[in-house]
Amino acid sequence: MAIHSDLLELLVCPADKTKVELEADGSGLVCPECHRVYPIRDDIPVMLIDEARIEEDGGAA
């Protein structure tokens, strides 16, 4: 099951409050500003700064 589009509309990066985008493979949510990728585990986005990884190339949204 994927992230529901209504939920995706509400989610923002906790670091800079920018709207996040779903990664192409659906494994995480990418912030286009700070390039943090928040993981999705068991269909639940983990929106914790300490859990995010930073994509060097800006991520693949």
What brief labels describe this structure?
61 residues, mainly beta, N-terminal domain of TfIIb, 1 helix, 5 strands
Distance between the termini: 19 Å
Largest sheet: 5 strands, antiparallel
Tell me the count of domains: 1
SS summary, helix count: 1
| CATH T-level fold name | N-terminal domain of TfIIb
- The Rg value, from CA coordinates, equals 10 Å
Just name the CATH architecture: Single Sheet
User: What's the CATH class label?
Assistant: Mainly Beta
- Low-confidence segments, given as residue ranges, are none
Mean pLDDT: 91
- Helicity level: under 10%
3D structure, described in words:
With 61 residues, this protein is mainly beta. The protein has a single domain (5-54), classed as N-terminal domain of TfIIb. Helix content is 10%, strand content 25%. It contains one helix and five strands; from the N terminus they run αβββββ. Strands 1, 2, 3, 4 and 5 form a five-stranded antiparallel beta sheet that branches. Strand 3 (36-41) and strand 4 (44-45) form a beta hairpin. The protein starts with a helix and ends in a 7-residue tail after the last strand. The model has no long low-confidence stretch (mean pLDDT 91).
In short:
With 61 residues, this protein is mostly beta strands. The chain has one helix at 5-10; strands spanning 21-22, 28-30, 36-41, 44-45, 53-54. The two termini are 19 Å apart.
Write the layout of secondary structure elements.
Layout: H1 5-10, E1 21-22, E2 28-30, E3 36-41, E4 44-45, E5 53-54
